[in-house]
Amino acid sequence: MKILKIIGFGILGLFVLIVAVGLIAPKKYEVERSVLIDAPKDVIYMHVQYWSNWQAWSPWAEMDSSMVVTIEGEDGLKDAKYIWKGDPKLTGEGEMVNTGMVQNQSFDFHLHFIKPWESHSDGYIRLSDEAGKTKVAWGMYGEMPFPWNIMMLFQSMDSMMDKDFTRGLAKLKEVVDEEMAAIKAFEIKKVLLSTQTYVILRKHVPFSQMSDFFGESFGTLMAQLAEAGKHPSGMPSALYYGWDFATSSADVAAAVPIKGRVPKGMESVRIPRQSAYQGDYYGPYENSGMAHWAFVEYFKANGLENNPPAIDIYMNDPTTVADPSEIHTRMIYLAK
Predict the structure, then answer these.
(1) Which letter does DSSP use for residue 163 in this model?
(2) Residue 103's domain spans which residues?
(3) Which of the listed residues 184, 210, 243 is the one where a domain comes to its end?
């Protein structure tokens, strides 16, 4: 009995000690790392605002090749979710939710780590000007519940997250540096456009629905022209009247060029003869954002002002080329 009492008092003493240590151990934590990137805020922010772009620079995606990611909601907008499920020994399971953003300035999210243990924290990415470059600060803060907070006496959250945050920001810089090199290398020349009439279907479309919109709209336009006994005079095109990154949508038109009279009941737009700026992009449509940014930077550097619509002419049919790098899009920007 005496031994049992000693063991009992020992267990009780250990419990009291754990509780006492847990009471004095820190619970709140905050981690932040930053990097300077030689690129405009709007170029960098595209890689921050959209969960789909995180895969290219996330240190955890690099760490766990088995990780499966699902994005729910309208990517780029508040409440969109990034849900991952990976190796329990590496990345586990969890989700991040977009909790708010200020365009080209900040992106806030809530992190819910589910497995192998559950925890909650809040994170942010902030962009600011520094030394002629953009400072990107990636931070996370929260509260470690008892008794897990005892671990913070031996290793702080700051030191635990240092390697991942530092690697993630380094990868983000690599991605943006590569993109900026491509933007600077993209060739833009001044050309003279001939007058062109397009029949169009115009709509404000979420980025995520853009492919479906163009596919359906081109089919509709072709059918309407055939019914009217008309033939296209050139390749299908997209007319971009404006991008709204705050709502992840764009004011666009599917357009088919024609000559002569516009069939009754079809909406049309006429682009008059004028000087314009042209570049030829080769590659998948989903990667063509770099080329559009090249025009934005070119116009800034040369004191030009964009005069919508910007025109993408689809020079070949992507279903007929063997290599996606052969997909050819001719891009034209008009200036005021």
Answers:
(1) H
(2) 25-184
(3) 184
